[in-house]
Amino acid sequence: MLWDESWHPGVIGIVASRLVEKYHLPTVLVSLKHGSGRGSCRSIAGVDLTRVLQGCDDLLLAHGGHAFAAGLSIAPDRLEEFRERFDRLVTEAADEDRFATRIRYEAELAPQDCTLELVQALERLAPFGLDNPEPVFRMDGVRLLQPREVGQGRHLRFDVHAPGGRARETIEAIGFGFAERFALAGLRSATRADLLVVPSRNEWMGQTRLQLKLRDLRIVG
Questions:
Q1: Nearest to 39 by CA among 62, 66, 67
Q2: CB under 8 Å to 38, separation ≥6 — which residues?
Q3: How many other C-beta atoms are found inside a 10 Å radius of the C-beta of residue 23?
Q4: Contact 74, 41 (CB under 8 A)
């Protein structure tokens, strides 16, 4: 749980969702304006926000929402007490294993079977969100080619070997925020890796290319 006077209340919900994606922990962000706090809450499977906030009802001016997303109003002098109780109730609501990051994938996919036609078919399932998550696929034992850092050293980019693919022998993959998790030396010495990816299109300078958005990576050889 975090709060600040400079945060705009219209964007803290989006930021809270990103923090949940990154840390896999229930998150509350509060914007302090004009002597009161407006908060946005986001949660994970197994931690029902409505029950947690009901357990903090005496500390809040108002609250509402559902199991995974909620809003609240709070007086600034109750923030510390609320943070302590929220943390305790979340801990009681789920065992420690619940906070391990889990990513569901739809099916296994060979790199050579990943095409722009597949991307077009997946795009027909949009819009994606909490109740309709973006399809993720697993690629086992793929070869990583030319791993490098991009975006001022924050992101990871590499090519995936796709032998026999219709368009080309490699597919570009991008992992936003992954450079801080994986050392380049380790990736360059790896021979094989398992990937969780989202097939997508990258449009740049009038050209459309197939691209894999990385969701997770595990070196296996």
A1: 62
A2: 9, 30, 31, 71, 72, 73
A3: 12
A4: no
C-alpha pair distances (Å), 149 with each of 161, 162, 195, 209: 18, 21, 18, 20
8 A C-beta contact, residue 160 and residue 111 = yes
What pTM was estimated for this model as a whole? 0.66
Distance (Å, whole) CA 65 – CA 55: 14
Cα 172 from Cα 111, distance rounded (Å): 11
> Under the phi-then-psi rule, with left for phi > 0, alpha for psi from -120 to 50, and beta for the rest, what region is 88?
alpha
Token pair listed for 162 = 């796709």
| Full pLDDT tens readout for the chain, 221 residues | 999 999 999 999 999 998 988 888 999 999 999 889 999 999 988 899 999 999 999 999 999 999 999 999 999 999 999 999 999 999 888 766 666 777 889 999 999 999 999 999 999 999 987 678 899 999 999 999 999 999 988 999 999 998 765 546 899 999 998 888 888 878 888 889 999 999 999 988 888 999 999 999 999 98
155 with 176: CB under 8 angstroms? yes
Q: Residue with structure tokens 């997303």?
A: 69
CA distances from 112 to 75, 127, 153, 167 (A): 56, 26, 29, 9
